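Lab channel / #folding
Pinned by the channel admin:
"Please post every new chain as: sequence first, then the structure tokens as a reply. Keep commentary short and put observations after the output so the thread stays searchable."

First post following the new format, from NK:
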Amino acid sequence: MTYRIRGLETAPFSALFGLSDEALAAQGVRRYTVDRKGAFPDRIELRDLEPGESVLLLNFTHLPARSPYRASHAIYVKEGAEHPFDAVGEVPEVMKVRLISLRAYDKDDWMVDADITEGEQLPTLINRFFADARVAYLHAHYARRGCFAARIDRV
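Reply from TO:
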């Protein structure tokens, strides 16, 4: 089965890019300078950021549903990111190297299944969930910290 993984759009975050640390703090956002590879997974470009890059840590409502599953959590976004990741049938490296919690939702935003897998095995779990006709979309989370990673849709 074919699937599509997309990073978040830049628009909801672009007004934060370039603000002072004080202005960010007033909105509950913190800026970091990446100090080590593998510690700051960006949700727009869906890649691990490189040392020296600027990243914002903020709360993001990744499931704005009118259901008990409405959810938000902390995410990192690369400051100044312009081009969201968008690929069909391809899992980005940032997800391949992490333990992933995958959650399956129906068209009414009710969770119908969930499981955990190593990122390298993610395509198998995606296909298993999309074999269920009730599943409308998937949310991937980085399992260890619980942070939203990306949405996955059928193609």
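NK: The longest strand covers residues 54-63.
TO: also worth noting, The helical segments are 11-14, 21-26, 93-96, 122-130.
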